[in-house]
Every structure is written in structure tokens, then in C-alpha cells.
Design brief:
- The chain is mainly β and 314 residues long.
- It has one domain: 7 Propeller (Methylamine Dehydrogenase, Chain H), CATH 2.130.10.10.
- It is 0% helix and 54% strand.
- The radius of gyration is 18 Å and the shape is globular.
Length: 314
């Protein structure tokens, strides 16, 4: 292999094609770390947010940048598409969230209200609201149409890194530097349940497609899968040797992908907790990771400023 080393575990082998093979793509253009990556709902475009203060929208087939969205004055930490793919939200260290028209690249609205860096942004399933998490320890819910703040959720005692709506819109999960995952019930006045199990800061939370399981990962180098709504710990995944930056579910909920400062992406079997494959060789810490909607591709952003796409085949 020309660009990566593969370590295989168990009977199932996930083949990441080498850089010289089709359809691997390397997306070049960012001048800083590629911190966040997100596929459009139809899988035809890919967005990335970077420490170079820009957001890029790419054609993953040609590796060409379709749009460069300029407007943030500091690192862009998170990007997320709305459900129909017509808008993109980006959150930044500049304390704002911006919403963009993905066809024209036009800035539609800037949301202000956090008092520190906004580390996370996620659309509600109906596309009418956004949830954000910030270093100011607050989770905020916004009306996208009006650009207005609907609610501020208080409970975390340290900065928040990750927030995400459940697929049914009933719950919001959040995690950060107080080592606790909170699950906020949007149908019960946003009361929250605490999920306790991590020993260090939580960098990422992610729901499976049923909304019945939640994954969390962070600086204790572990991923935990929880049962929702009872908050029971189902399984702990161990193998990374430095902090985990991001955890995401495969579309069929059978696998997890985790990206880490140890310069690897690991693919895990959810049922057994075993590592199915580990991708190494980028030579830099890996930040964002995202499955394509059909589950055939993985997009990975890293501190070498590049976004890489691998085909994943069982």
C-alpha cells in the first residue's frame, strides 16, 4: 500500500483502498487542520471545516472544491448539513454559528449568543432548529428560520465539545470536559439524565439510526455505547492509545468508526466490541470521520490539512 498500513482483526476484513486505487480521493485545499467532515444527505457532496477559518464543499468523486465559504474569523470546528441538503451550518471559535446556502455559497444568517468558542452544531431532524454546544458550558437551541434563541440548557460544569439530536428529535446528547454525557429530553422541558462512565473529557457523542443507542468517546481513549432512555452502559471499546476525537455509527448500526490523536481510525464491531480494522499511516492526528449515507465510504480529516476518502468493502 502506498499511503496507509492496514491491520486486520478477526474474520471480517474491511479493505481501505490505497491512494493509487480508484475510488480513493485526497481532497487538497485547506491551509489548516481539517477538523470536521460531513456528507450531504444524498452522499454527492462532502463538507469540511478547518482551522484555516473556512468551510469547503467538495465533489467527492472528482476531489474538486465546489464552494469555499468564507466568513468565520477563527477556527471552524464543526459542520453539519440540514436534512434536505440545501443549507450547511458551521460553528467556530469566533463564538458564532453561520448558516450557508449550499448551492450559492451565500451566508444566510449568523447566530450569536454563546460567550465562548462554539464547538458543535447539529440540525434537528425536521430541519427547523439547531443545537449548539460551547466552551461557555451551555447547550443552546435555536430557531433557524428566525435566527432566534429558543432555549439555553444549563447543567454541564465545564466546556462542551459535542452535541447531537436523536433521529426522532426527542433527545439531545451533549458531552464535554466534565466527563459526563447529558441526555436532554426535549418533550419534558429539557430535563436531563447524566450518563457517568468516562474518566476524562468527552470529545464526541453520536446516536445510532434508531435513537435507542448512543456512543460517546474521548480523552480516556475509550468509546462507550449506552442504552437510551435508561442510560445503561452496554459496552466499552478499548484500543486507541491517545484521545479519540470523533465517533460515528455506520448506517446499518453494525459498526462504529473512531478517529484518534494516535493517528489511526478504527472500525469496531458493535455486537462484539472487537476491532475489525485499523487504518494507520497518515502521520498526523486524525480529527473528523464520517460514513457516507450508503455506508460504502469513509471521509477522514486530519492535522495534515487533507481530507481523505476510502472505500470500505466487507
Amino acid at each position: 500500500m502506498t499511503s496507509c498500513q492496514l491491520i486486520f482483526f478477526g474474520l471480517l476484513v474491511l479493505a481501505f483502498q490505497s491512494q493509487a486505487d480508484n475510488p480513493l480521493q485526497v481532497l487538497t485545499g485547506h491551509k489548516g487542520s481539517s477538523i470536521s467532515v460531513a456528507w450531504s444527505p444524498d452522499g454527492k457532496r462532502l463538507a469540511s471545516g478547518s482551522s484555516d477559518k473556512t468551510v469547503k464543499i467538495w465533489d467527492p468523486k472528482t476531489a474538486k472544491a465546489l464552494q469555499t465559504l468564507i466568513g468565520h474569523s477563527h477556527y471552524v470546528y464543526c459542520v453539519d448539513w440540514n436534512p434536505d441538503g440545501t443549507k450547511l451550518a458551521s460553528s467556530s471559535y469566533d463564538r458564532t454559528v453561520k448558516i450557508w446556502n449550499t448551492k450559492s455559497g451565500k451566508l444566510l444568517v449568523t447566530l450569536r449568543g454563546h460567550n465562548s468558542a462554539v464547538m458543535s452544531v447539529d440540525w434537528s431532524p425536521d430541519g427547523k432548529r439547531l443545537v449548539t454546544g460551547s466552551q461557555d458550558k451551555m447547550v443552546k437551541v435555536w430557531n433557524v428560520t428566525e435566527g432566534s434563541l429558543l432555549r439555553t440548557c444549563k447543567g454541564h460544569t465545564d466546556l462542551i465539545i459535542s452535541t447531537q439530536w436523536s433521529p426522532d428529535g426527542k433527545y439531545i446528547a451533549s458531552g464535554g470536559f466534565d466527563n459526563i454525557v447529558r441526555v436532554w429530553d426535549t418533550t419534558a422541558d429539557f430535563q436531563s439524565k447524566k450518563l457517568v462512565g468516562h474518566k476524562e473529557a468527552i470529545e464526541s457523542v453520536g446516536w445510532d439510526s434508531t435513537g435507542k443507542k448512543l456512543a460517546s468517546a474521548g480523552r480516556d481513549n475509550t468509546t462507550i455505547v449506552w442504552s437510551i432512555p435508561d442510560g445503561k452502559k452496554l459496552r466499552t471499546f478499548q484500543g486507541h492509545i491517545r484521545r479519540i476525537e470523533c465517533v460515528v455509527w455506520s448506517p446499518d448500526n453494525k459498526q462504529l468508526a473512531t478517529s484518534s490523536q494516535d493517528q489511526t481510525v478504527r472500525i469496531w464491531d458493535v455486537a462484539t466490541g472487537k476491532t475489525l480494522a485499523a487504518l494507520t499511516g497518515n502521520g498526523k492526528p486524525i480529527r473528523g470521520v464520517a460514513w457516507s449515507p450508503n455506508g460504502s465510504l469513509l471521509a477522514i480529516g486530519s492535522d495534515d490539512n487533507l481530507v481523505r476518502i476510502w472505500k470500505v468493502t466487507p
